[in-house]
Amino acid sequence: xxxxxxxxxxxxTLYNETIGEHYHSKHxxxxxxxxxxxxxxxxxxxxxxxxxxxxxxxFGTGLNFILxxxxxxxxxxxxxxxxxxxxxxxxxxxxxxxxxAYVPESIWFDFINNYPNAxxxxxxxxxxxxxxxxxxxxxxxxxxxxxxxxxxDAFSIQHQPEMWSDEIIAHACSFLKPGGTFVTYxxxxxxxxxxxxxxxxxxxxxxxxxxxxxxxxxxxx
Length: 221
Ligand SMILES: C[S@@+](CC[C@H](N)C(=O)[O-])C[C@H]1O[C@@H](n2cnc3c(N)ncnc32)[C@H](O)[C@@H]1O
Prior knowledge:
The protein is of the alpha/beta class. The longest helix is centred in the N-terminal third of the chain and has 18 residues, at 29-46. It has one domain: Rossmann fold (3-Layer(aba) Sandwich). Helix 5 links the parallel strand 8 (147-152) and strand 9. It has helices at 29-46, 63-74, 91-96, 105-118, 166-173, 189-197; strands spanning 2-6, 12-16, 21-22, 51-57, 78-84, 123-124, 129-132, 147-152, 176-184, 200-206, 213-219. The structure holds S-adenosylmethionine (SAM).
């Protein structure tokens, strides 16, 4: 059961009763998504690029997606967004988040109208943007495609330690192109060692409100 809960910046999140965790930071869902994934990830990796492919781990409510979609449309960047989700939410629950308030109406409707089909077949939302949400676990996910960015947005190591093992991090990183960018809201010694072992250069960046630091890592060429 997921319960809609307000966060400190006024945006909502969901509280997952089974896992015992929120989908986003309780210090601000919108702020966290913008800070970690859009500013430190997408803006960093897409500078001077006309095309970007993103692999997200954990689609959840789609907040990271709608902000990325809006940014790419506004900047005429071709977006190919794939987001692995083991437990997809219903469209009704996603609509209850009220995230439609944070993007133009056309962006919201292109997303929400295509969401159910994106869970089974890649959907072309606009001439520039495609969304695909493989309904599977990260461990079972396989593709020949290589991505420019990974948004690693799994539940925390305290609540879902299997999503932070060295093996699963290496599996996720194997889908990134050389020179590609891995971003996540978390940073631990174990995570830094796991990412470095995959040949990445790591950077500690200031975290979103409520977190001192976050991790950005770039894959060796
Ligand atoms: C922190 S939430 C993601 C929040 C999301 N990015 C958003 O903007 O709403 C973690 C997500 O990972 C999903 N998840 C849990 N176990 C998973 C697994 N083994 N593989 C892929 N996704 C998983 C959960 O269902 C949840 O949607």
